[in-house]
Amino acid sequence: MTRLVLLGPPGAGKGTQAKLLSDRLGVPAISTGDIFRANVAAETDLGTTVKEYLDAGKYVPDSVTNAMVRDRLQQPDAAGGFILDGYPRTTDQVRELDDMLVETGGKLEHVLEITADTDELVRRLSRRAVEQGRSDDTEDVIRTRQQVYLEQTAPLVEVYSERGLLRSVDGLGEISDVTERLVEALDLPDA
Ligand code: ADP
Prior knowledge:
By secondary structure, this protein is an alpha/beta fold. The protein contains nine helices and five strands. It is globular, with a radius of gyration of 16 Å. Residues 10, 14, 32-33, 36, 53-54, 57-60, 65, 86-87, 89, 93, 136, 145 line the site of adenosine-5'-diphosphate.
């Protein structure tokens, strides 16, 4: 049973590593950003609600995000564990996730922080802007997202560190090297 949260600034590689860890650990990777973007693309009610926040690089209101994650974690495939990529991102979301886990009788095992310096983050996101054309990868919005991360999400490192759950992993270098570092940090019995 692996219940894992990935933390790290925009561009740190959470999405990439979440997918690789998902294959490795056999639990689903749940990316709030991917779910929001899919809803925007499909023009659902949720997509209509969140589009302006995504485009501006602002966080979607906690009430909306919490309800969405609560619903996703109740899906059968998450019963055996999960990797959360992009949630929680605020202290309110931390409390909400705690409540969800109490209700299902489970607890969080690991919080892995992927680190990278700001210059590298901006370089990666600018490159992704060209490759993928994401609406929030423009220079202004990238800067806003880094700022929002520092203000609202960076404090979560301390919160989880105090609980003894946090390990920090260097996000620089080859993708496969970063995956190995993450797996090592999980300290799995049979890894
Ligand atoms: P990145 O980590 O590169 O910023 P994501 O794909 O994780 O990108 O998220 C993209 C956008 O989706 C965020 O800028 C925000 O608008 C929204 N979002 C994702 N997760 C959350 C969350 N937990 N709370 C609020 N908004 C979120």
